Amino acid sequence: MSQTDDPLARHALLVIDPQRGFDDHAHWGGKRNNPSFEANVAALIARWRLRGRPLVFVRHDSVEPASPLRPGQPGNAFRSEIEGEPDLLVSKKTNSAFYGTPDLHRWLQERGCQGVVVTGIQTNHCCETTARMAGNLGYQTLFCLDATFTFDRAGPDGTRFTSDQIAKMTATNLHGEFATVVSTRELLER
Length: 190
Prior knowledge:
Rossmann fold
């Protein structure tokens, strides 16, 4: 398939914070959702490599002393399904991949990327923030909901929300405004 025949040829796959530190569910406040995350992300990475599409891994290098995502901690490392080298590795200390090093926006612009596909951890934090910024920067943004996961959380009034409820709200917040919410299957069929 040539790039002119590939509708996603100019879409970079962003794999955000796929780090081992997210295996510490107690640290993150509760049960996670989406047991298909690992298989879905691995399938998307494999397809992007097969098609020669741009692949970006993003790593959160936390500055918080108690964070399992701090550099030098085992939790800073990528999960086992994240294999091989990306075309770009972005290191960040904030929620958005667009505030990392090297400059993701500049890299995408230099390569003529027209869009991004957002995947990774956590659905409602770094993935949603990155998708919002991508949409605001003018990228055609595809948010692959079933290639993300998050955790149960309590709201400011103490109300508990399940990780599935939170993921659905993120999809609702993004779809049609900042991004188009898609599934792994949809992306693999394109």
